[in-house]
Amino acid sequence: MKKKTPDSSANRSILLMTYLMAGLFVCMMGYFGYFLQVRGENVINNSYNSRLDRFADRIIRGQIFSSDGRVLAYTEKGEDGSERRVYPYGSLFAHVVGYSDNGKTGLEALANFYLLSSHMNLVEQTVNELSGVKNMGDNVVTTLDAGLQETAAAALGERRGAVIAMEPDTGKVLAMVSYPGFDPNTLSQDWNALISGDNTEAQLLNRCTQGVYPPGSTFKIVTMLEYARENPDTWQDFVFDCDGRYEEGEYAISCYHGTAHGHQTIAQAFANSCNGAFAALGQELDLKKMNGLAGQLLFNGELPLALAYSKSSFTMTEGAGLWEILQTSIGQGNTQMTPVHNALITAAIANGGVLMKPYLVERVESAVGEEIRSFLPETGGELMTAREAEVMAGLMRQVVTEGTGSAVRTDAYSVAGKTGSAEFETGRETHAWFTGFAPAENPQIVVTVVVEEAGSGGQVAAPVARSVFDAFFAR
What pTM value is reported for the model? Predict the structure, then answer.
């Protein structure tokens, strides 16, 4: 038998070490390539990366445009060389475009890397740098439609609330309005007043993405979906007799303003937003499965959204008490939701169960209009099956044709939606909600509205959505 010599053992060890080092080198180069192509931009554009702002020493911050070509932000240079960021529309786009003084928010933060990059002619850039002249930064073209933004803001008026509009099949955000707002042109002067503890208006808060509200009857979409999922063959057999007040044990649930809906099929109860029917229906649900559905619909988790946002919360778990079940089933209790989250669930229903990631940047262009980069739609996952989405879309259509959503009923186009009137504090008026899409049979736009302390969703929020729908289909 041939014995291994000391030299052969050493050679084997050296060979193994060589393979190991080669493997580590390949892995390192692979990660380096991944970082450059996938992670690098996010790291460079991180708000904690102070070195990025040093680009401003040699680049004039680029412009931000709406999708219809209007300038939403630009940098004005004074005769003394000073620079001032200008927002031509004042407060209209304040929350979504954001600001670049006192930190950065909105698109100013999201697109910071692009706005402080320059793709001017290389020779021109070199000459400018040698002569101490700043280069023009790249411009960002957004998905925002200025006309729809104006319409949404006008429809909301001077009522606290939010309006968001998006394309369900692409995820493009078309409008994002939050009121009250602020003027980014005078932010530095107004800053102390805006952040003062005596200020209760929360003007800096983007209510579309950061405002959390009880969803009220818009949450019946979730309750209805869970019931249909647990009873795929018999859900349509549910009936309920409503006298305006539902009592169970020591607890009572009233329909809005005590309305007695009479004998209701499940479709009618959904269309008429019958609290009694859904409180009764909620007691039949498997709470563990209900909690699982809430997670699948992105409650208590991350949203595929690049802007700063608040998480929606759903707290009912297996073993919950009767009162919590009754309240949660109708969108009250501890459930909290942001308007953008409500819009995303609605968009998934409109898009056959598939959620498209919402996005705000259409493309990046050089200062002379040459396209540098474009952004394409991305899927954000399947929130429900195509069949479930079809069922929910049909029920939401009936809300408009026969129920509380009559304010968006028109012969010009078809709408599917859900209204809500959310209680949040005893003795104060309810928040008004509407979320829906149009056309119902071939959805092109989703609109979600919340108006704080405004009363009925059908009477207040739905007309705001109607204005946005009208403007969209009149383009």
Answer: 0.89
